[in-house]
Batch of 2 targets.
Target 1
Amino acid sequence: MTRIARWKPLGIAAFIVAVLIAIAALGQLWITRSEPYELARALLGDKLGVAPHTIGLDRFAGFKFSDGPDSGHARFVLCGASGKCFFVFAQKLEGRWAIADLIER
């Protein structure tokens, strides 16, 4: 087995990991620039009695996000500075986003 043949599987694995990390980073960027993210931060800030800018996305939690012209849904986790985290469920109906549920994790 040649030297290149031994390193090829590692190179392929590294490439796949890099692509997955890039996809996750782009998804998180998409969420943090979305309307449901801002709505959830404001609602959670009121619920916890803190400023919305102290609440952020849990980078290691899973997320789902789809956005169409009239409908969509989002699921992600927001955490406050106190360490309390909440699952956020948002829906877009008739072109308007609304927070459907906030559940403490």
Target 2
Amino acid sequence: MRKMATRDELLAQALRLSPDDRARLAHELLDSLDGDVEAPDAEAAWGEEISRRAQEVLDGTVELVEWDEVRKQMNEELERMRR
């Protein structure tokens, strides 16, 4: 009988996947949590949060960041976390 892989082993294997396959795996894992964690009023709370953020953009009270810059910052943070 084969032993089940540990979380660290699974993570190491997942990190060897292509970026597209990692994204697909992440999406499927997140989807598997739907309904298990969210409170009954989560959808309404998210609607309020989206409205609040949209209003901040319209009011000019938040700093917008280009996607290329966000991606660069995320990649840098991930590299720091891996060290």
